[in-house]
Structure formats: structure tokens, C-alpha cells
Hints:
alpha/beta; elongated; disordered N terminus
Amino acid sequence: MAASGKVSALRLPPLPTIREIIKLFRLQAVKQLSQNFLLDLRLTDKIVRKAGNLTNAYVYEVGPGPGGITRSILNANVAELLVVEKDTRFIPGLQMLSDAAPGKLKIVHGDVLTFMIEKSFPASLKTPWEDDPPNVHIIGNLPFSVSTPLIIKWLENISNRNGPFAYGRTQMTLTFQKEVAERLVATTGSKQRSRLSVMAQYLCNVKHIFTIPGQAFVPKPEVDVGVVHFTPLIQPKIEQPFKLVEKVVQNVFQFRRKYCHRGLGMLFPEARRLESTGKLLELADIDPTLRPTQLSILHFRSLCDIYRKMCDEDQQLFGYNFREELKQRRDKQKKEEKESYGLEMPL
Length: 347
């Protein structure tokens, strides 16, 4: 580990270009893993600049690939850079960077979805949640295939103040498909408003800071890429457990073109669905004919607060899943059809 405190400025020595690294180690992007390489160091430098002042910072980079953003982070005079890469093909190229920056770069072969970062950086970096963000940053050019599950995982970590957020309100600067980036920052009433909008914005200050054209990547994706910055809020806008908020939001947006009461009804067993949905909407003081995209964070806060009270009154309610009830009904119907046609096997 690099010692905390002032560190000397670092400029990497002359190295092969990222394009030369790709040729040297015969690296090819794997389409199934939605890999796209960013070769223009002017763009990787811009991503790193937008992350904020990284002088003496401890940085966690996810999905470094051939190391374009990695170089820019190292040139930003960080105290230490931890990279987690699942694809073993990229490790030799990253090791070359590590050799060029002794004591600065730590390489972990692993999966960002399961990697435990809590003990990777010095405990002295931890700051109270109410204070300014710690000198810890997350930066990454995320493969499209993992970007959504990963940000949902990290949002849950923010809610629970664990994982990368055991250090405090760790800031994140990440790439997403432009469409996903637009959803993350979408305001109430916009067409892009979605589950991601609500889940991100009730926990973070979210900014879509700039867009990178698809042709800047190799191979060129079919879409442009948005760079998004997240700063966790001191106080979440909905003060309920993450899983409860997620369940309410998911149910609302699964019928995004219907009135909001349609999705909210799926929170309750069919036998009392109409009555319970009406009670939820009445107590939350919400117009049942609003569309999901028209619901604000304040609307969702009211819904989650009332739903929590209803779950406290009925201990089995939170575990209810309408899909399971629907499957049981279909299975029962099939069994009855077999019996009616004499197809049931004799005992």
C-alpha cells in the first residue's frame, strides 16, 4: 500500500501506445462481453479530469481493459490505483503499467460484481457520512453488459453505507450507453424517466457530464457513450430500506404506459388487490391516473412510507410476489384441465 500523505508527482515514462499494446498482446474486444476500447488519451484524460482533483487520491478503477483510463489516472498524481479486471488477457499490459509506476498500481484479477473493496484502502481514509466525500474515487469504462447490475449493486451499497462507501460518500465517474446515461438523470415527466432515474436520484446527485461519440471506441459500438458522475447524498430522499424502495419502483415501472395504480396493484395479493391499492394511493395522497414517468421522488417517498406501514401491519406482505401467485394459479388450472379430461395418472 502506498503511504498516505503527500506523494511526489508522477509522469509515466515513454510507453507503447494503447493501440500498440493491443497489437503486442493480440487483444481483441469480445462482443459477448460488450467490450469497447477507448484509445484516445485526450478523452481518457477528460474522464479523469471530470472525476475531480485526484491528487493524493486512492482510486478504484473497474474494467481497465488495455489500460487507457488507467494511464490517465496514474498521470493525475494519485496515491494509489487499484484495478479489478476479469479478463486475464489484459493482465500483462496492465502489469507493464505497474512496472512503469512502482508502488502506485495494484492489479486484481477478479469480478467487480463480487469483489470486496472494504479493506483494500487504508482505514484512515474513512470519513463521517455527513462530511465531505473521502479522497477515494471510483472510475470506469464499464462494459455495457454489467453497467446496470453494477450501478444497482453500488446504489444498494450507498443505502447500506458499505462496500466502496464504507469510506464515506465515495464519488463515482462511470461510462454508460448514452440511453442509460439519459435515464439516470431523467427528470419527472420526461420520456427517459425510469426505474434507474428514481433509484439513482433518491440516493445521489447525478450528472451526465459529457457524451463520447461511438466512433471514439474500438470496435465502434452502435451507440454513443455518456459519462456520468455520482455523489452520494448526505440524506437519502427516501428513508426506507433499499429493497423496499426497489420493489415499489420496479412494480410501478413494469407498466410504464399504464396508470400508476396498475403497477402498484401488483404489490398486493389478488384477493385484496383493489382494496389495498386504493388504500395505498389514498394514504399517500397520489392521483391513481398519473403515469409512472409523472411520479416525482416525493411521490415515491410517500408510496414507500405507506407501503412500509402496510408491511409492518402484515408481516407476509413484503414477501408477496405476484408472479409466484400467477404461476400457482396456472399450475392449478393445468391440473384441473388434466383431471377434467381424464388425463390424470391413476395412483
